[in-house]
Design a protein that fits this description.
This protein is mainly alpha-helical. It folds into two domains: 2-30 and 66-248 and 330-363, no CATH class; 366-464, no CATH class. It is built from 19 helices and six strands.
Length: 465
């Protein structure tokens, strides 16, 4: 009976925290990045075609080869909200919540007081623009990375609870393969974390040594044969824009990487001295995150492989795990009555996400969704936009160019050529092969009503805009 009550408390605590996050973030965005448009375009295609989509669609660009698991999840859940766009927004926020639930659960298993202090420290750092987890969806919009990180941390937490080496090995292998279909950084982080943990166990236990070899072979097999690896190698050379705010300078990044390595090693050694496998595992996760960041930095700097942008995307883990590990190292456990692990994890996750997002100006996404529905149900068939010689685009003056671009490539499937680029830049000088514009009514033009919006001839629209 006590076990049932404990599980009920856990479920209610997590559900209440998740409901709070989704309610608070309902209809709101903290990013106006073009990443939103590209992720949504893939979700829209998967909603229409499922796994049988064509090999190449011109409105997707590099997203044709992007690992699609996170986008499949949004597409599968879209009937709940009757919108792939809202599904993506909610799943992204839910993923950030799960990231912190998993992290604070790990911490609370070691020390409830350390987990509570970590909540306070991370919330304070977020208010100072220290880019911890959550900043993936603030400024930029790294939707897939957020989902994959949540899956990786959950897999790591589940593996920590397993007493069977065989079950743990199988869990890590299955999780790594699965997460690779969502985002490669999180998959590599999981490979490195388990590799470091097995190496550490191999030093202290003879039975663990053969498993190091098994994991090395499995990891090499993953890198050689996983279908997402080649795609991410191609995409990974792209140098995008990413402002890491408080740690955007190379010197700060070097200090952060080195400090994370030291903190991870310190946690693992302390756990070994205390004979506490949970602390050892946390230390190995932190050290592995350092090793992955350092490897990507070295590969780019020394060998010219990958990109600086790719290295910077790994730093969200370091900015979170370094202070978290420091709390594990320094804060001793104090008995706290009534504070169960799920309550600490759920309440702490809500508090940290609130601190992450409150420092950014929210964007009202309600009107975007209303106009998206109007375009979707306008009766205009997007198939015609796949022709080379004509296209209908979207331009609502109340939306930013990026959101008009989202509707143009996502709902109307306009190829990502000069026509989509004109919507993105809001500069239509010399642009050809556009027939019409879906927009608000323009009295100067002979407009064709399509539901609550209007289809206006392009030449007339340009002349009178």
């Amino acid at each position: 009976m006590e076990r049932i009550a404990s599980r009920a408390v856990s479920v209610v605590s997590i559900a209440a925290g998740l409901a709070t996050v989704l309610y608070w973030s309902s209809g709101v965005l903290w990013s106006g990045s073009v990443d939103i448009a590209h992720h949504y375009a893939l979700i829209r295609v998967l909603t229409e075609h499922g796994p049988f989509r064509p090999d190449w669609l011109p409105n997707l660009g590099e997203m044709n080869h992007y690992p699609p698991l996170a986008h499949y999840l949004a597409a599968w859940l879209s009937p709940i909200w009757d919108s792939g766009l809202v599904s993506m927004f909610n799943l992204g926020m839910a993923s950030l919540f799960v990231v912190y639930v998993a992290l604070f659960s790990m911490g609370a298993l070691v020390s409830k007081s350390a987990a509570i202090v970590a909540v306070c420290i991370l919330a304070g750092l977020a208010l100072l623009d220290w880019p911890i987890h959550g900043f993936e969806l603030r400024g930029n919009y790294f939707y897939s990375q957020a989902v994959a990180t949540a899956l990786a941390y959950c897999a790591f937490l589940a593996a920590m609870a397993s007493q069977s080496h065989l079950r743990r090995d199988a869990l890590f292998l299955a999780a790594t393969i699965t997460i690779g279909f969502a985002h490669m950084i999180a998959a590599l982080q999981l490979i490195a974390a388990y590799g470091v943990l097995l190496c550490f166990e191999g030093v202290t236990s003879k039975s663990g040594r053969w498993r190091v070899g098994y994991w090395a072979i499995a990891s090499l097999g993953f890198l050689a044969f996983h279908p997402s690896v080649r795609a991410m190698l191609d995409i990974g050379t792209h140098e995008g824009g990413l402002d890491l705010l408080a740690v955007d300078q190379p010197v700060m990044q070097a200090v952060l990487v080195a400090a994370t390595g030291l903190i991870g090693a310190g946690c693992a050694l302390m756990g070994a001295r205390r004979n506490d496998p949970t602390i050892v595992a946390i230390g190995c996760l932190i050290f592995a995150s350092f090793a992955l960041s350092a490897s990507l930095w070295g590969a780019h700097t020394v060998a010219g492989l990958g990109s600086y942008y790719g290295f910077k995307k790994t730093l969200f883990s370091l900015t979170t795990l370094a202070p978290f590990g420091l709390c594990i190292l320094l804060v001793r456990d104090i008995h706290i009555k009534g504070a169960t692990v799920p309550i600490i994890a759920s309440a702490g996750s809500v508090a940290v996400l609130f601190a992450v997002l409150i420092g950014s100006s929210p964007i009202d996404a309600t009107r975007l969704e209303v106009l998206r529905e109007a375009v979707e149900h306008s009766g205009y068939q997007a198939e015609s936009n796949r022709r080379e010689n004509s296209a209908t685009i979207v331009n609502f003056p109340e939306l930013t160019p990026i959101f008009n671009y989202l509707l143009t490539i996502g709902e109307l499937h306009v190829p990502r050529d000069e026509r989509a680029a004109a919507v993105y830049t809001n500069d239509f000088t010399g642009v050809q092969r556009i027939d019409a514009v879906l927009t608000d009514r323009m009295e100067q033009c002979s407009s064709e009503p399509v539901g609550p919006i209007f289809r206006v001839p392009f030449d007339c629209w340009v002349a009178n805009r």
